[in-house]
């Protein structure tokens, strides 16, 4: 290979350092999970341990591959305050922390109604600290002295770029990902950013994800054995990174990406930003693509729900593997309309913020906690295969609502990638429920890392994304349509409990 690109891909659960060659082929990767660092009773990111591991892995790869660039991607809703010494000025709190209803009430009393802020910034009223603006407000309250010492307020990918290069910057995909910080109508820092008083701490100009933030600092070059001329990209939000391969192959519109993992993120690149009056207050929002264009988005924690409920069922029945797909079992559950698995395990995180995780069977409700503690088991859960089928059906119901909220129209293709690609029950039912849309499973195993690698190659070569469309392959496997007429009446009944 002529050169290689190191990708540092920071997921909320798994952190990854990968190497791509000049043909955008994944040649090596290492993964690690970092448990939260408890500080003042709060879960925080262990930034020091992560940096040591990133450095160690890059140094190891530097001995084997001709690395010319480092590309960065990271999960959303995370920022780091930096002091004069170049180190974090306060803890980096997990966005899953719930500060309580009183905090949310103070926030909206100070900055405006959830609907007004959604219209301005494209951001819905998530609970916890899933909005970066809320995270900053919480840090100001929790760590006032640390905040006073802050000279740079950096979004998560750009913090890591700063640690490796010593340069600061900002780019659109992260600033615009449910942050409350960017006015998507005016293209400038929002009223929230101004009201928080953080505009002087943040770069006001947004670069592109493939722009060069800088080159390696002498210190990082020494630690890794790389040359100082190695480029560092500006970085990209992980969900937006997963769109780039499809933009290269399909163009910038005409599909919805159903990216499935801990979070199921459904993204519809659209030509115009804006909400209908009926959408305000709903869990629908706009990301900003790497090209600065609007991406109508809806999310829910589908992977978390699948892992939690399926693990409970496995333990309950002494199973280690998921059952084989049995269409007749699914159709029977749908036709009877007697049992329903409802979201949300993390309240306020998805499309049904008022719903509580539970089973409803024959009109009787069984809370998740009641089932998990073995106090009461709904009849449908007494058969392992039935429980898993009911779980898959629930995930499809949530996906259909999310797709509707992204503005899905007949004829638009849906590309499913990530963990649910291998769930036959899920994608068979999803395709059946959408007779006017073709559903495809993609062959991309590491979409976020590939998207980040693409930004690295663009930075190194100066090429446009369209110039790279032949440099990698994506197989789109169409899901054959199966007629399941029982779905529609079941969906109506399911929504009645949501």
End-to-end span in angstroms? 53 Å
Q: Summarize the biggest pleated sheet.
A: 7 strands, mixed
Assigned CATH class of the largest domain: Alpha Beta
Outline: globular
Q: Determine the CATH superfamily of the largest domain.
A: ATPase, nucleotide binding domain
The CATH architecture of the largest domain can be given as 2-Layer Sandwich
Strand content: 15-25%
Radius of gyration (Å): 23 Å
Give the helix/strand class: alpha+beta
Which blocks of ≥5 consecutive residues have pLDDT under 50?
A: none
The CATH topology annotation of the largest domain reads as: Nucleotidyltransferase, domain 5
Q: How helix-rich are the residues, as a percent range?
A: 25-40%
The whole-number mean of residue pLDDT values reads 96
Briefly summarize what is shown:
The chain is built from 17 helices and 23 strands.
Fill in the keyword field for this structure.
globular, 7-stranded mixed beta sheet, 498 residues, Nucleotidyltransferase, domain 5, alpha+beta, 2 domains
Give an overview of the whole structure.
It is a single chain. The model has no long low-confidence stretch (mean pLDDT about 95). By secondary structure, the chain is an alpha+beta fold. The protein folds into 2 domains: about 5-235, ATPase, nucleotide binding domain (Nucleotidyltransferase, domain 5); about 235-498, ATPase, nucleotide binding domain (Nucleotidyltransferase, domain 5, 2-Layer Sandwich). It has helices at about 45-60, 100-110, 115-120, 130-140, 145-150, 155-165, 170-175, 190-195, 220-225, 240-250, 300-315, 325-335, 370, 385-405, 425-435, 445-460, 485-495; strands spanning about 5-10, 15-20, 25-30, 35-40, 40-45, 65-75, 80, 150-155, 180-185, 190, 210-215, 230-235, 235, 255-260, 265-270, 285-290, 295-300, 340, 360, 365, 415-420, 440, 475-480. The relative contact order is 0.12. Strands 1, 2, 3, 6, 11, 12 and 13 form a 7-stranded mixed β-sheet that branches. A 7-stranded mixed β-sheet has the order 16-17-15-14-21-22-23, sandwiched between helices. Helix 11 (about 300-315) packs antiparallel against helix 14 (about 385-405), helix 12 packs across helix 17 and helix 14 (about 385-405) packs across helix 15 (about 425-435).
């Amino acid at each position: 290979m002529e050169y290689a690109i190191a990708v540092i891909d920071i997921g909320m659960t798994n952190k990854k350092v990968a190497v791509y060659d000049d043909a955008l082929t994944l040649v090596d990767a290492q993964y690690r999970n970092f448990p939260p660092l408890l500080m003042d009773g709060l879960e925080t990111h262990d930034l020091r341990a992560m940096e040591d591991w990133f450095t160690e892995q890059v140094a190891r790869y530097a001995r084997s591959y001709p690395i010319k660039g480092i590309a960065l991607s990271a999960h959303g809703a995370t920022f780091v305050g930096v002091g004069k010494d170049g180190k974090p000025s306060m803890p980096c709190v997990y966005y899953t922390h719930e500060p309580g209803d009183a905090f949310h009430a103070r926030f909206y009393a100070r900055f405006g109604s959830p609907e007004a802020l959604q219209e301005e910034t494209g951001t819905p009223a998530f609970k916890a600290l899933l909005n970066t603006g809320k995270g900053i407000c919480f840090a100001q309250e929790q760590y006032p002295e640390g905040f006073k010492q802050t000279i740079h307020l950096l979004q998560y990918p750009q913090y890591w770029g700063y640690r490796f290069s010593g340069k600061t910057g900002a780019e659109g995909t992260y600033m615009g990902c449910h942050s409350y910080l960017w006015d998507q109508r005016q293209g400038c820092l929002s009223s929230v950013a101004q009201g928080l008083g953080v505009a002087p701490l943040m770069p006001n100009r947004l670069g592109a994800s493939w722009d060069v933030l800088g080159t390696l600092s002498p210190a990082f070059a020494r630690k890794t054995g790389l040359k100082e001329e190695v480029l560092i990209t500006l970085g990209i939000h992980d969900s937006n990174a997963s769109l780039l391969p499809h933009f290269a192959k399909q163009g910038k519109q005409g599909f919805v990406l159903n990216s499935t993992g801990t979070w199921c993120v459904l993204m519809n690149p659209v030509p115009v930003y804006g909400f209908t009056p009926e959408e305000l207050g709903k869990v629908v929002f706009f990301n900003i693509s790497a090209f600065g264009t609007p991406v109508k988005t809806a999310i829910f924690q589908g992977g978390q729900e699948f892992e939690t409920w399926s693990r409970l069922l496995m333990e309950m029945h002494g199973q280690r593997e998921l059952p084989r797909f049995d269409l007749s079992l699914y159709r029977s559950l749908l036709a009877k309309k007697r049992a329903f698995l409802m979201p949300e395990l993390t309240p306020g995180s998805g499309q049904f913020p008022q719903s509580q995780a539970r089973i409803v069977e024959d009109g009787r409700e069984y809370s998740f906690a009641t089932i998990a503690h073995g106090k009461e088991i709904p009849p449908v859960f007494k058969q392992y295969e039935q429980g898993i089928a009911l779980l898959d059906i629930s995930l499809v119901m949530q996906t259909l609502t999310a797709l509707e909220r992204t503005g899905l129209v007949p004829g638009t293709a849906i590309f499913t990638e990530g963990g649910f690609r291998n769930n036959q029950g899920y994608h068979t039912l999803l395709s059946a429920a959408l007779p006017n849309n073709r559903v495809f499973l993609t062959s991309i195993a590491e979409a976020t890392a590939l998207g980040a690698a693409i930004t690295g190659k663009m930075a190194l070569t100066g090429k446009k994304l369209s110039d790279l469309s032949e440099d990698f392959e994506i197989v789109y496997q169409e899901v054959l349509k199966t007629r399941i007429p029982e779905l529609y009446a079941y969906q109506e009944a399911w929504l009645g409990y949501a």
